[in-house]
Amino acid sequence: MDSFDPNHGSVSENAANDLTPTPKAHPTRPSRDEALAAVRTLLAWAGDDPTREGLIDTPKRVVDAYNEWFQGYTADPRKELSRTFEDVQGYNDMVMLRDIDVESHCEHHMAPFLGKAYVAYVPTDKVVGISKIARVVEIYAKRLQTQETLTKQITEALQDSLNPQGIAILIDAEHQCMTTRGVHHKHVSTITTSFTGVFETNLALQERFIRLSQSR
């Protein structure tokens, strides 16, 4: 990951305030057959023949892939955080997970963006299983997203469930909508951050989190 200035790159207050509630599955979700027909239409629109041998099963594969890529719409991230442990025995330092895989799709072009998430919190009186934090990142990522919204949603889920002394999130990702279309700039990463509580007020702690995010 490239070096990062803690004074830049944070999710802005306006971005945070403009966030819409967590999206829910559409109440009139189209049927699988309708989804298959839509893929066939797109194949024909692209200029190919959806009935030729190489494409005959493509609609099925695409719909199955969408079920996997967007499974976050049918999962509740806060449920993953519902079981906590209060026996922290006075632990008063950060709990940090590094290099959590982020596999998401931008809501503007439905193109993938891929990267890593770094998540830390300082507990108040309870902790959660570390695998649950990775699962929360995965659930929110498996939706159509912007990286800014994804960063804030993870923060809010941890805040609501754990009420910690502070939270730090950093996501570093490359967006395929930028590398494979439009400006065609490869190897450009986007960094978003969110700091609350002690990570916002204690710059030494914030810098330590960033340093640990960069170290290998």
From TrEMBL:
Keywords assigned by UniProt, alphabetized: GTP-binding, Hydrolase, Metal-binding, Nucleotide-binding, One-carbon metabolism, Zinc
Note whether Hydrolase occurs among the keywords. Answer: yes
The answer to whether keyword GTP-binding applies is yes
What InterPro entries does UniProt report for this protein, alphabetically? GTP-CH-I_C/QueF, GTP-CH-I_N, GTP_CycHdrlase_I, GTP_CycHdrlase_I_CS, GTP_CycHdrlase_I_dom
Q: Catalysed reaction(s)?
A: GTP + H2O = 7,8-dihydroneopterin 3'-triphosphate + formate + H(+)
Supply the Gene3D superfamilies for this chain. Answer: 1.10.286.10, 3.30.1130.10
Q: Where is this region: Disordered?
A: 1-32
Regions of compositional bias (Polar residues) in chain numbering: 9-20
Q: In which pathway does it act?
A: Cofactor biosynthesis; 7,8-dihydroneopterin triphosphate biosynthesis; 7,8-dihydroneopterin triphosphate from GTP: step 1/1
One example of the protein's molecular function in GO is: GTP cyclohydrolase I activity
**Residues annotated for Zn(2+) binding in this entry:** 106, 109, 177
Record GO biological process? one-carbon metabolic process; tetrahydrobiopterin biosynthetic process; tetrahydrofolate biosynthetic process
Assembly, in brief, is: Toroid-shaped homodecamer, composed of two pentamers of five dimers.
Please name the NCBIfam families in this protein's record: folE, PRK09347.1-2, PRK09347.1-3
Q: Which family does it belong to?
A: Belongs to the GTP cyclohydrolase I family.
**Designated name of the protein:** GTP cyclohydrolase 1
Q: Please state the gene responsible for encoding this protein.
A: folE
